[in-house]
């Protein structure tokens, strides 16, 4: 691959070219991929509708780029190394040849079950190689995958399945995470009561948990594989896809309403994830690359599966959690497989930091070359701990800022190229044109300034729409500021022109690197039988970054407030999933509201933070006394 940037000078040149001649720039990157037909036009766009088309007219299949084209000289190189939850269970390695075979076989399973190009397939699976196989098999035949993270509830899955009208669900009996067995198939059974569009469920066996299997609808993964194998349906030619054909839908929360289905398409996403993977991490042949994310999130899509495989890398997939069997698990894995690149989240770093250095000290981490961080701002203490104790001061930390909607990393150091600075995502990657904007929509020029972060020019990996509701896409991302994509993040640009992301400026909470909408949590709390009203805000949490703080008004006295809190949490868990459970619940008799009835979250945020002195002016509130009461009641 000849698009690897290897000096700061080269970065500056590439950046300049990407701004001055974006079409030429991206065309020269795209030349490195395998196309069934090349594009007629590199880019057509406007942010008004919005309409974004990259590599228009081109034909390709992303799996040919991720698999087939590596068979010539990398057939026997590991594509996926899989480390199980239980360290005493055997690990698995799939070479490019084996992965190709398995993807083709399973693609034939999809076909023989009636899945066609354009059909939507929901995937709800544990972190096992079959999850990657299922994802790639969909892409092989042009089916659109919608992966749902294993921590979401039946209700959340049903909402997602119905929104996308999925025809098929791929799941497993269960999944192992630490000491827990997650009953995935049971959750799917509960979801499907509400999902008439689903005709078939393919079930992988993993935990051997007893499950129900409904004749005509539910089929065992292995039986289906055996069937196509017996029929000699081994190979599966890759479906010819248009550059702008949908590749996948991934749901993400915003400040209002139900989660949105972010739509990514084929060619631009492929080029962008491969380009950014290669450059940010400076991947070298035979390196072992370990991203600790779950494939249920965008990081897993782009930087466990598509980006690394497009580059012919060896990507390590881990089924478990960082603290099982103990807080040394990541370091054991680095030691065992001689991992060269570790890409993880600040929340994991903070939790392992708290467990102490005993878990690090006997592990051989000398293979490490590059460390990555993603998901939320990394605080200074965690940055230094990661740098000193894991990287031993010799591995650059790439603090990668991006979002589900972006497809790939937008602002980040390039390892060993961009001088790093703790807590800074540093500089935009080539093709990315960030601007800071003030409340009134004026672009803030110069350095040493802060504002709302927008991007003023398209990049190939950006979202194209929100599934089934293009107007919502326009509203959410392209209407706040004219002709710009609005990220929802606040940001400062320091004297050196380096970017530091300061966090969300909307009603979105970032819990352990996962985005949770306050409105969604409020809706779930309000479904509890005795709740009149609630307001949810984020507050600083030592490990999670932000925690969920809920102010709740009950319509009658509870004789056991602690039990009521647990009931409320259980309700949220049922409606959204365990990841959205409030960390703290405070019962109140009223909420601070303006005369027009708007909840003053700013005040609630200050109180949740314990910053009582800066609650500010409350005199314009409908009922200022309520603030004093809430302050007093704070635990
Ligand atoms: C939000 C996106 C795609 C990454 C995984 C999360 C925050 C992400 C950073 C970072 C500061 C970050 C932002 C962003 N965020 N990375 N390096 N520094 N903040 O994806 O769920 O779509 O959330 O995560 O607030 O808007 P996501």
TrEMBL record:
Signal peptide: none
Record's protein name: Acetate--CoA ligase
Lineage: superkingdom: Bacteria
Enzyme class: ligase
Claim: Ligase is one of the keywords in the record: yes
Family to which this protein belongs: Belongs to the ATP-dependent AMP-binding enzyme family.
UniProt EC number: 6.2.1.1
Gene3D superfamilies: 3.30.300.30, N-terminal domain of ligase-like
